[in-house]
Amino acid sequence: MGKIILTASGKGGCGKSTFAVNLGYTLAAAGLDTLLVDFNIGLRNLDLYLGLQDRVLFDFGDYLAGTCKLRKAVVTDGELDKLHLLSCPQIRDIKGLSRQHVSGLLSELRDLYDAVIIDAPTGIGELIRDLASCADAGVLIVTPNFSSIRNAETVSKRLEGQGLAKRFHVINRVRAGSTDPSLPRVEDIEKAVTVPLIGIIPEDENIDIGNNAGRPVVSARDSYIARNFEGIAARLMG
Length: 238
Ligand SMILES: Nc1ncnc2c1ncn2[C@@H]1O[C@H](COP(=O)(O)OP(=O)(O)OP(=O)(O)O)[C@@H](O)[C@H]1O
Ligand SMILES: [Mg+2]
Prior knowledge:
This protein is α/β, with parallel strands linked by helices.
């Protein structure tokens, strides 16, 4: 039975999708059959960040509607055969998506893969609550801003309210050498977020370049960032 990992943040643009693709790539490269599931219905990005946009013909909305089989909606990466993507609709909504649909889909996926990584929508909407109640671990992505910290705490409490006890945070976009006293330091963030810190990701142009090129930055296997994600994955998976 696989592990379901949920990414979350209180503010948009903190790096949830970036974290999801790089974690997924890291786990797949380590030999785990890994499925990334994009739950940003209408605003998906994982297909682009993985360079799979031209191969996504169906999504989980089609599967739930009975239009296609699950294996038609799942796309496997061209480079790593253990890395898979299940997208959500790009422009339309999924009408009547209930808690039962979400939990039924996720329990089916859990039986098929070693790791299921959910890229969740920002904030504290109904969908994130449904997702949290099915997940084994939640990762809050926080950036060095007081607003991001506060909102991450709010999301963390919502996840806790759904029974998601195993929660962690990752600090993303940390600028090396930044000493401006008005910006929260890593130590301040770690103190303010009440769930354990499992990783620090620097601000790095190559991360953005990787997303735009459709190749997660950790696909350069001998890079410092690949090592960094291996450490995060090990702490997360226990
Ligand atoms: N550590 C980083 N260094 C440089 N750029 C980054 C870093 N992390 C993320 N980015 C860039 O920041 C932007 C937002 O990242 P991303 O799409 O992962 O955020 P998100 O939390 O998923 O956003 P949304 O709330 O819209 O879903 C992207 O252009 C991404 O390439
Ligand atoms: Mg995103």
